[in-house]
Amino acid sequence: MTMLIDGKLRPASDGAVIDTPNPATGRSLATFPDASATDVDDAVVAAAAAAESWRRVAPGERSAVLTALADVVAAHADEFARIDADDNGSLLREMRRDVDMAVFYLRYYAGLTLQMHGDTVPSEPGTLTYSVRRPYGVVGRLIPFNHPLMFAASKIAAPIAAGNAVVIKPSEYTSLSALRLGELAADIVPPGVLNVVTGTGAQAGDALVAHPLVRRLAFTGSAATGRAIQRRAAEVGVKTVTLELGGKNPLVVFPDADLDTVVAAAVRGMNFTWQGQSCGSLSRVVVHRDVHDAFVERLVAKVGALRPGLPDDPDADTGAIVNRGQLDKVLSYVRLGQDEGSRLCTGGDRVTDGALGDGLFVRPAVFDGVDPGSRLAQEEIFGPVLAVMPFGDAEEALRIANGVSLGLTASVFTRDLATAHRFADELEAGYVWVNEVGRHVPGTPFGGVKDSGIGREEDVDELLSYTQLKNVHINYGR
Ligand code: NAD
Predict the structure, then answer these.
(1) Within this chain, do residues 372 and 415 fall inside the same structural domain, yes or no?
(2) pLDDT range class, residue 221, cuts 50, 70, 90
(3) Are residues 202 and 267 in the same domain?
(4) Is residue 478 part of a domain?
(5) Cβ(412)–Cβ(422) under 8 Å?
(6) 98 lines ligand 1 (CB under 6 A)
């Protein structure tokens, strides 16, 4: 496959490629370009030139281009879902849903191009003071492996709608759908406005972060990489960096909540359908002592019944882990949890037999009696491992829920209005659900507090975040 740089589809200039295996079968799937710093420079220079004219294109026309891109993604929905399922190991039906979300966000930002307005500010007679929004120019976009096409398509929509040109680098573990998007976009998006470069984080990613012409960086990925990017960007210049990072998100269960409803929600909220590989996964369940035993019994029965399967299997509940490194990480946390004294109630072992034996499958795991201060409770695993810990009163629940460095999402289940409002107010997270899990309501701000990030996405603020305000003061009096 080839990259999209300056409107042309091309390999890496030195011909280097990366091999990508199918994590569900272990078989080689494809090779794709391993971009060098030179290739990234080509893309950024092309983007800088394109941005000069793109920002002058009328908002309605920018909107039409994004709408055309949405149409072509929708027309290739099954193909994209197939590519992502093969490349990433997640279930085909889930990856198909991702395509719908990608199309939705392309259309959503296409519809917002007229919302980039500034203000007029009262000033003395004979003067006029107003602000206007200007795009940055070149936006560097770095995305993770868990929702390949959904992020590749939806995370370019806002910066392009705002009049920027984009260079996007997908994860080296799931680059194929972004490359396919680039191929289709070549006939729709003006040359240089969208560039897709592939390669490793250490080489292509670093070159993008460190390029002096990239003034605006938006990163979705792990907290450790996010901090490294902030540091690296600051070495080069003053750059605006937004970060959508990891989570170790709590689900708090009060005894007045309906237990079956909460058990079902806990399973859904952990995103086992993506093998737990979701930043918003509610991976810590903090449950009141009065209902703890009954809750754990039902939770373990439900999670224990989840069936790993090949992405095509309509009866499968969970797919393959994306790569060997991630698999090893998950298995090492399962061992660590046991070493720390937590009780492994179900799962946590690799599937080594039958049709799944060559793939990277782990049975969904539940740990109980987890010490809130333990590493199992503190660190993001980004795998199918759920940690349960009991609490006695609301103060303790809040202490446990907020007692981690991350703060992306949180959920509380209760029928008591006062408790619901208190937790909505006091949970340290960017997105809080009450009697709900996992939903991203379109048009609402998604993002983290504390080490989970800076900035908000999926709403109008994401569009505005790709602009800078310029103030103009006119003295037209005599
Ligand atoms: P990662 O941080 O390893 O990689 C993300 C991207 O950054 C990849 O494209 C990678 O190539 C690139 N990269 C890596 N090192 C780099 C460097 N030094 N310079 C520049 N680029 C570099 O993350 P991952 O393993 O792909 O994804 C999992 C993580 O993403 C989890 O922590 C998860 O919580 C997080 N995530 C967050 C959100 C959110 O919206 N907050 C959404 C999805 C995933």
Answers:
(1) yes
(2) very high
(3) no
(4) no
(5) no
(6) no
* Residue range of the domain that includes 225: 3-245+452-473
* Residue 478 clears pLDDT 90, i.e. is over it: no
User: DSSP per residue over 379-430, as a string?
Assistant: S---SSEEEEEEESSHHHHHHHHH-SSEESEEEEE-S-HHHHHHHHHHS-SS
Cβ(228) to ligand 1 under 6 A?
yes
Residue with CA closest to ligand 1 atom 13: 201
Residue 423 lies in a domain: yes
Same domain, 226 and 270: no
Instruction: List, for residues 135-179, the tens digit of each pLDDT value.
Output: 999 999 999 999 999 999 999 999 999 999 999 999 999 999 999
Structural domain count, the chain: 2
Find out whether the beta carbon of 189 lies less than 6 Å from any atom of ligand 1: no
Residue type, 80: F
Q: Compute the average pLDDT of residues 328-356.
A: 97
- pLDDT, residue 397, reads 98
CB 47, CB 4: distance < 8 Å:
no
CA of 229 to the centre of ligand 1 (A): 10
CA–CA distances in Å: residue 155 to residues 63, 120, 219: 15, 30, 10
Q: Looking at the whole model, is its pTM more than 0.90?
A: yes
CA-nearest residue, atom 15 of ligand 1 = 201
Q: Whose CA is nearest to atom 9 of ligand 1?
A: 171
Question: What is the CATH number for 331?
Answer: 3.40.309.10
Answer yes or no: 244 catalytic.
yes
The pLDDT, as a whole number, for residue 184 is: 98
In the set 172, 244, 380, 458, the catalytic residue is 244
Q: Does residue 347 fall inside a structural domain?
A: yes
437 and 457 in a single domain? The answer is: no
Shared domain check, 432 and 285: yes
**Same domain membership, residue 459 and residue 420:** no
Q: Ligand 1: does its nearest atom lie under 6 Å from the Cβ of 177? A: no
**Residue 144's pLDDT is what?**
98
Following CA atoms 448, 451, 455, 459 in sequence, which dihedral angle do they give, to the nearest 10 degrees?
-20
What is the overall mean pLDDT for the chain?
98
Same domain, 234 and 157: yes
Residue 166: alpha-carbon gap to chain centroid = 18
Q: Give the separation between CA 17 and CA 33, rounded to whole angstroms.
A: 4
> Is 279 designated active site?
yes
Condensed to tens digits (0 to 9), the pLDDT of residues 406-423 reads 999 999 999 999 999 999
Q: Are residues 80 and 33 in the same domain?
A: yes
- The number of the ligand 1 atom at minimal distance from the alpha carbon of 279 is 34
pLDDT tens figures, 302-323:
999 999 999 999 999 999 999 9
Tens digit of pLDDT for each residue in 230-245?
A: 999 999 999 999 999 9
Contact of 83 with 177, CB cutoff 8 Å: yes
Ligand 1 mean position, distance from CA 170 (Å): 9
Separation of 224 CA from ligand 1 center, angstroms? 9
